[in-house]
Amino acid sequence: MLPAHNEESTVAAAVTAARQGISALGVEGEVIVSASGCTDRTAEVAKDSGASVVIAGKGKGEAIVQGVKSAAGEIVCLMDADLEYYGETPLVALLVDPILRGIADATISNLYWRPIYPDQWLNGFFAPLAGLFLPEILPKVGSTPWSGQRAARRDLWPKVLPAGFTSDLAITLHWNEHASRLRSVLADDWFNPIRPKPELLAQDFRLLVEHAIGRGRIPVGLKPDLEAWFSRIEAIIDGYDENDPDPMGFEKNLLETSVRELRLRVARAMQ
Questions:
Q1: By CB atoms within 10 Å of each CB, which of 10, 22, 102, 233 scores lowest?
Q2: Is 110 helix (H, G, I), strand (E, B) or coil?
Q3: Helices first, then strands: H and E counts in the chain
Q4: Could you give the C-alpha distances from 111 to 23, 53, 85, 94, 211, in angstroms and in order?
């Protein structure tokens, strides 16, 4: 299932790649394009490419919910409609095969190459916060827990999701609770366009904190201290210089600073 918003230039190739993955698995399957608030020819191009098309409201979460609802298969694999994947084995096959073999019931792609922003998301925010309050999640989700490339048994897909891109994290948190065998799958080289999402980090932070509070992992009174910590880390991320000759060094320092300051704030607040 491919959620797509104005992807007329890439959706045909994505449909072809999905079909190749189904063929490599040797199973019956369908390709669904969930056209989300499109104002271009995405739906028409997808249909001409042989995909079934679902018209969904605007927002990735809306597209995922509507697309999964229309799927007939026992396993649903999610793929971005603008992703170019260069691995020898189709990405759909990599993600679905462990589920077919019974060693996973949900998978998330661990994409080894990542631009600087997602690494900052991981090292500055997700790993420190989830590592402290949801430590069981880190071994399951790999280094790209926000990835849009994932698969699961159809009963594990949430029936309600946030409308926007924070839906990826919402699915990961849902699977952490409900999937007995959530595993990351190492994938190969890939490319998709980088689209600035300046509001996403704060949205994901709020989602993760509210999730942990709702499950008794974080006392509600700690929320202001976490918000102050997040503001500090967000400022460090925003101050990154794209001409930095050592981006990996920046990420390492970001992780160490984030963990240290989070632990200090939590310890002081809990005294």
A1: 102
A2: strand
A3: 11, 9
A4: 22, 27, 10, 12, 25
> Amino acid identity of 244?
D
Contacts for 97 with CB less than 8 Å, ≥ 6 apart: 25
Between CA 153 and CA 27 the distance in angstroms is: 15
What are phi and psi for residue 112, nearest 5 degrees? -70, -30
Per-residue pLDDT tens digits for 64-111: 999 999 999 999 999 999 999 999 999 999 999 999 999 999 999 998
Q: Are 46 and 12 in contact (CB under 8 A)?
A: yes
| Number of Cβ within a 10 Å radius of residue 206 | 15
Quick count: other Cβ atoms within 10 Å of Cβ 107? 28
**Is 271 buried (19+), middle (13-18) or exposed (0-12) by CB count in 10 A?**
exposed
Please give the Cα distance from 49 to 12 (Å, whole number): 6
Angstrom distances, CA of residue 67 to CA of 77, 127, 164: 11, 30, 15
Q: What pLDDT score was predicted for residue 114?
A: 63
Kindly state the average pLDDT of the residues 189-213.
87
Q: How far apart are CA 218 and CA 200, in angstroms?
A: 22
Other CB atoms within 10 A of residue 159 CB: 8
d(CA 33, CA 46): 7
pLDDT at 115: 63
% of the chain surpassing 90 pLDDT: 84
Q: How far apart are CA 47 and CA 33, in angstroms?
A: 8
